[in-house]
Write a structure and sequence with these properties.
globular, two-stranded parallel ribbon, alpha+beta, 116 residues, endopeptidase fold (from Nostoc punctiforme)
């Protein structure tokens, strides 16, 4: 789970209104960010935070954004998001090491993950 930090009350309200507008939409089995009638979890961040420069990937003729694309935008202090909660192998990882652990997991360097 990631969080966009440093938001004003007005920004927070605007983002929440966009998020709530997605409630009730069908599941997007095509994983296509260019449609607005259906949605998946990673598309929610893409739709709500439209001011973020998202990395999308073309797959089977459509553009998608994956959870890894979102996580990649929380790797450093300069990124728009901060890691808030990380689970790996069914276990919650410790809070003080989120950025380190996020980078280790994205690099598939599982031996560097700090578990306690």
């Amino acid at each position: 789970m990631v969080r966009k930090e440093g938001l004003s009350d007005a920004q927070r309200k605007a983002y929440l209104l966009i998020a709530f507008a997605q409630v009730g939409k069908a599941y997007d089995f095509n994983f296509d960010v260019e449609t607005n009638h259906s949605i998946v979890c990673s598309e929610l961040a893409y739709v709500v935070f439209s001011d973020v420069d998202w990395s999308v990937e073309e797959s089977v003729g459509r553009y998608t954004v994956s959870p890894d694309h979102i996580a990649a935008l929380a790797r450093s202090e300069d990124d728009p998001f901060s890691p808030l909660l990380i689970y790996h192998d069914g276990r919650e990882l410790p809070g003080g090491q989120h950025r380190h652990n996020l980078n280790a997991l994205l690099q598939e360097d599982y031996e560097s993950v700090i578990w306690d």
